[in-house]
Amino acid sequence: MANTAEYSSKTTRDGFLSYSDGSIENGLTTLTAVEIQKLDNTKEYDVIIIGAGFAGLIAARELGLRGRKVLLIEAKDRIGGRTFTAQTNDHNFEIGGTWIHWSQPHVWSEITRYGLSLKESKGVAADRMSILLENGTKLKEISMLDSLVALANAMEKYSDVDDVQGRTVIPFPHTPFVANELVQKYDQLSMQDRFDQIIDSLNITDEIKDMLLALLSMNMQGDIAEGGFIDHLRWWALGDYNMIRMFDKLSRYKIKEGTSTLAQAILNDCKNVTLLLSTSVLSVDHTNTNSSIIRIQTGDLLLARSVLVTVPLNALQNLKFFPPLGIKKQESIANGQCPGGRKFWVKLEKPIGPWFGMAPYPNPITMAYTDDEEGYIIVGFGPDELLDIQNINIVEKELNKFLPNVKVTYVLGHDWRNDPFILSTWSWYKPGQMCSSLKALQIAEPPIFFASGDIADGWRGFIDGAIESGLTNARYIQQYLNKRFPSH
């Protein structure tokens, strides 16, 4: 069993907390039950897993429960990858991946397994809405209910490439290449290309147009000219080809007990698993197909019969492989994916009740909404690197565009884009990338296997996708080991 305590808290090096007096605390308190474990570098493991996000944790659990000796190596000082729950002033803040839904099959299975529950982000269903028009210079307060039908109709027209809401392109969202020719066709378009195709036929007000652009930019967290349209169609299909259902799945419900509680529960279920934290991997040598050599930052060499790499796509460039990986995989890693933008949380001095705000790119905040019952807590998102989320004065100034005269008590978050072990927020591919890269990134090069939320078939970029990818590759690795080393 992985060496764990029951439950405790510690300060991770990740994240920051910025106060109204200008002071900044680096590092956030988060739930963790992980104790330091001693490395036995004389042992040959059945599997070494690089990365203890949800893909790595699930694979470790599944392989360990099947009697495999597993070493789980994590560069950070905590588990969870691009998710962790920070505990500040008696409130839980989800710094990375947050929202889930009961229609996401893999994560919902884990929620059921561990007896966890859901909590609603209240602002998503708020009727009071602020929208910034005319390049962020004009504030208009509207009723969300009055605009929702028009926005949903505009989104349907944007998504409807085949008169059946994209169903011929992605009929089975968890099997993305069923209609391969159509997928290749629409994979070539950027989100901006598609917008330009249909803007003259939308017949909408400037207000609804800006709301549509804000929502599209928010989804890929940047300039929609850089984002692939096929990823929008994938989200649309996963959202049942309906804007309201898609929105509920993306941003309304989260784990009441916290994502770190789920990660910890999975770790506590592990058997035959050794966990190393604060240990980065430099290289993987698989010259000998019977045994891979892993070099870690200390210079130690570790041996394994197989290796599962769960490093985020944009950070894979920092890991060396000997011999080099296949040329298509190398090209996919070099191209990377969209890096995403900024996510931040603020605590207001006074509550504002349920509220929702939107602004089109390139406003520094494209979407923000209250998360708690009273309206003290706001979660916000900004495209690219247009917002310095560590500067509380700048964050407050940008929020004042939506909510004049609100005062921010503190702001917290983490710079995922520039985190050297992550280099991205959630997954969004560039035009042409799904067809050119997804299959190449998924293909195993035994004894090396690859898994992460960035290369899942279904909910790619979500906790569900990471779990899917981890489960899939745990099965592949077990089959490989059974065949290669039958005497085990």
UniProtKB/TrEMBL annotation:
Q: Where in the cell is it found?
A: Mitochondrion outer membrane
Regarding the membrane, this protein is recorded as: Single-pass type IV membrane protein
Q: What class of enzyme is it?
A: oxidoreductase
Q: Domain Amine oxidase: where? A: 54-477
Query: In which residues is FAD bound?
Result: 74-75, 281
Record's catalysed reaction(s): benzylamine + O2 + H2O = benzaldehyde + H2O2 + NH4(+); a secondary aliphatic amine + O2 + H2O = a primary amine + an aldehyde + H2O2; N-acetylputrescine + O2 + H2O = 4-acetamidobutanal + H2O2 + NH4(+)
- Pfam families of this UniProt entry? Amino_oxidase
GO CC annotation terms, alphabetical: mitochondrial outer membrane
**Where does this chain mainly localize?**
mitochondrion
Q: Which domain of life is it from?
A: Eukaryota
Instruction: Return the EC number.
Output: 1.4.3.-
Required co-factors = FAD
Q: Which UniProt keywords apply?
A: FAD, Flavoprotein, Oxidoreductase
Flavoprotein: is it a keyword of this entry? Answer: yes
Q: What InterPro entries is this protein classified in?
A: Amino_oxidase, FAD/NAD-bd_sf, Flavin_amine_oxidase, Flavin_MAO
* MF annotations from Gene Ontology: monoamine oxidase activity; primary methylamine oxidase activity
Which positions bind substrate?
A: 381
- Give the family this protein belongs to, as stated in its UniProt record: Belongs to the flavin monoamine oxidase family.
What is this protein for, i.e. what is its function? Catalyzes the oxidative deamination of primary and some secondary amines such as neurotransmitters, and exogenous amines including the tertiary amine, neurotoxin 1-methyl-4-phenyl-1,2,3,6-tetrahydropyridine (MPTP), with concomitant reduction of oxygen to hydrogen peroxide and participates in the metabolism of neuroactive and vasoactive amines in the central nervous system and peripheral tissues. Preferentially degrades benzylamine and phenylethylamine.
Name of the molecule in the record: Amine oxidase
Species of origin reads: Adineta steineri
